[in-house]
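Hey, resending since the last one bounced:
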Amino acid sequence: MNQENSQILITEEIILSKIYNVRGKQVMLSQDLAELYEVETKMLNQQVKRNNGKFPERYMFQLTQDEHDRLRSQNVTLKRGQHIKYLPFAFTEHGILMLSSVLRSKRADQINILIIDTFVKIRELVFLNKDLANQLEQVQNRLTKHDSQIRILLEYLNHLEELKDKELEQKRRPRIGFKP
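The structure tokens again:
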């Protein structure tokens, strides 16, 4: 299988399925990145450790056991008989960008472009959703204001109706006094 065919097989959905929210950041795990780059996780981790200065904690961090267990129970399940020796690393978008300079392969460059494009689309969707949420809130505020205005109008109409009823009631009463 040549590189073009393997690149075509990696879709946005595959990348999206490998993005997790950990510590309030969107990250990808080292084993998922290694799978996408078609390298061994051990080799990827070695390259990262050799270039440790390029990966500050805001770019990459190691999961705690609790974080790993939660992710594993939600999405990441190991195959039967497969165990991890070390907790995986979580790479932010910037850490993934830095990985391509460390791995130095065409495949890493191509995959990184796909991954970064996916992260950009996620940000655009989040921004669009925030914008829609703001617009919806404005409409809701207007409706609430209109509701209170309609309520005032209805109360006024009810008051007028009561006045009209009292006036009609007064007209229907028999007159007291001399009747011609």
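Helices lie at 3-9, 12-17, 30-37, 41-50, 65-74, 93-103, 106-172.

Sorry for the duplicate.
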